[in-house]
Amino acid sequence: MTTYNSDRISTGIPGLDDILGGGLTPQRLYLVEGSPGAGKTTLGLQFLLEGRARGERGLYITLSETTDELIAVGHSHGWDLNALSIFELASDGELDPDAQQSVFHPSEIELGETTRNVMNQVDTLRPVRVVFDSLSEMRLLAQNPLRYRRQILALKQFFSARECTVLLLDDKTSQSDQHLHSIAHGVISLEQIAREYGQERRRVNIVKMRGVRFRGGYHDYTLDTGGITMYPRLVAAEHIRDFKASISSSGNAEFDALLGGGLVRGTNTLVVGPSGIGKTTLSTRCMLAALERGELADYYLFDEGLGTFFTRSRQLGLDLQPYVEDERLRIHHIDPAELSPGEFAQKLRDAVGARNSRFIVIDSLNAYLQAMPGEQYLILQMHEMLSFLNQQGVTTMMILGQHGLMSEARTDIDLSYLSDTTVLMRFFEANGNVRRALSVIKSRTTRNALSIHELQLDDGGIRVGDPLVGFEGVLAGIPAYRGLTPMMEQAGNAD
After folding, report:
1. In a shared domain, residues 406 and 435
2. Final residue of a structural domain among 233, 256, 271
3. Which end of the chain is more exposed for a tag (fewer CB within 10 A), N or C?
4. Whole-angstrom distance, CA of residue 218 vs CA of residue 231
5. Containing H/E element for 205?
6. Residue 257: its pLDDT value, please?
7. In the 8-state DSSP scheme, what is residue 167?
8. Which domain holds residue 398?
9. How far is 479 from 355, CA to CA, in rounded Å?
10. Any idea what DSSP says for residue 211?
11. φ, ψ of residue 15 in degrees (nearest 5)
């Protein structure tokens, strides 16, 4: 009786190992299915190369690609495949359709010449890991579902007797092949989804995995030079960390008073307002205060260019360049058309976990939301992401732009219920001038002031004035000021 090793083996893709709860159970047969271009061949090669790095022999059996094509795939990723054994059946005479021979004889005893060659290769090399690419050719040769099922069962028994861990690649030419699903020990489904604009989206789903606990649902992944990178779906409950909640200054005493003392560690603040109101400047001022305290910070910039961001900040007396140069601050300029929710969540996890960043700014949520049209559960993803950051003791600021300047303002989506603190910014008109108003309308952790104050942006950063008594229509989005509190004098050029 064969004794099986209960330890897991790595797939060569750390993110996939994480999704699988540690990797694959050895000496089993797995199905990897996906449309052409989804990355099945790349996954198979990474699986074999990982085994080679651990001193395990690997065999790639190809019925669909030539050896030269596989070597070219390896070179495109910077891999040397000379250490792997590649057995090419694409040019084998037994695959000639005129031969009219199936891979397995219906009697299940007498094997065809092609199958015999495969078995001889396995018996000669004694590989630990095997990739069989692909099953679509076998399906065509079998001619009927019963014979095809017998072929797969015979393969499973053969490889099991030789203690091989096998990946069977299938390109989903059959829309629903439950025969394969029932026979395989596990099923990994790769998907490639084309979008009307931007990069295609790829995601993986573990359809089935016997005897192991895995993370279900869809997980984003990318296929680029160097292979596949998978981003396990973020589950905040798996990342709980003890920290001491404390209040830190925003860098402006008047704004601290509005917040009820300052920004609280382990909370998130949503800054809402129309374009040009000063949301980025306010968030930058708060982040600079954290940097001055010695904290590390990461800024995720979706909307504007780096040059504009640095120039504007420097003109307002918020010089970030020294902190960028010593890497206490990292600014990530993100193209929303090239991003997936899983990849962005992984960037945050790396910043907080590997880098120990304590202050995060997301500027803005509008571009992040627009980058993922059709994502049905984006709000749930945002909830998990913010819960994760809060549980790590990170101070987070999120910017959400509103449509409209002086008219009624609207947002793409309501995220206010996800925030611990909400800062509302509005334009208003007084004495023939357009001015800015600031108020903190919500705080879960402090006793915030509910008064409305004038805000000015100048070469000293931000200035917050006295409470303005006499406002009407602020919450409706069309503020009108009829009070007697004098406006602040212009101290410099506003942004």
Report:
1. yes
2. 233
3. N
4. 10
5. strand 201-209
6. 97
7. E
8. 238-481
9. 43
10. T
11. -65, -40
Helix, strand, or coil here: 161? helix
Q: Is 349 helix (H, G, I), strand (E, B) or coil?
A: helix
Domain check: are 465 and 349 in the same one?
Answer: yes
pLDDT tens string 13-23: 999 999 999 99
Same domain, 192 and 247: no
| 24 token code pair | 């694959």
pLDDT tens readout for residues 105-124: 443 333 355 667 778 899 99
Q: Is residue 7 part of a domain?
A: no
Q: Give how many domains the chain has, as a whole number.
A: 2
User: Do 48 and 160 fall into the same domain?
Assistant: yes
Q: Kindly state the helix (H) or strand (E) to which residue 335 belongs, with its residue range.
A: none
3-state secondary structure 215-241: CCCEEEEEEECCEEEEECCCCHHHCCC
Amino acid symbol at 305: G
Provide the terminal-to-terminal Cα distance of the chain, rounded to the nearest Å: 77
H helices within 66-220, ranges in order? 67-76, 113-125, 135-142, 145-161, 178-183
Residue 190 and residue 246 in one domain = no
Residue 186 lies in a domain: yes
Residue 12's region, left for phi above 0, alpha for psi from -120 to 50, else beta, is left
Residue 274: both structure tokens together? 């129309």
- CA 310 to CA 320: how far, in whole Å? 7
Amino acid at 449: A
Residues 61 and 181 in one domain: yes
- We report the CATH number of the domain holding residue 28 as 3.40.50.300
Residue 98 belongs to some domain of the structure? yes
User: How open is the CA angle 55-60-61, to the nearest 5 degrees?
Assistant: 150
What's the mean pLDDT in 7-30? 96
| Domain boundary residue, one of 233, 261, 293 | 233
Residue type, 187: V
Residues 219, 242, single domain; the answer is no
pLDDT in tens, 430-446: 777 888 999 999 999 99
What is the C-alpha separation between 165 and 35, in angstroms, rounded? 23
Read off the pLDDT of each residue in 270-296 and give the average, rounded to a whole number.
Answer: 95
Q: In this structure, are 229 and 326 located in the same domain?
A: no
Structure tokens at 42: 């790349």
Alpha carbons 186 and 21: distance in angstroms, whole number: 13
Angstrom distance (rounded) from CA 73 to CA 267: 46
Residues 6+ apart with CB under 8 A from 402: 272, 273, 274, 409, 410, 411, 477
Q: Tell me how far apart the alpha carbons of residues 438 and 425 are, in angstroms, rounded to a whole number.
A: 5
Residue 97 has pLDDT above 70, yes or no: no
In terms of C-beta density within 10 A (0-12 exposed, 13-18 middle, 19 or more buried), how is residue 161 classed?
Answer: exposed
Distances (CA, A) of 43 to 160, 203, 228: 21, 13, 7
Candidate from 21-30, 51-60, 331-340 with smallest mean pLDDT: 331-340
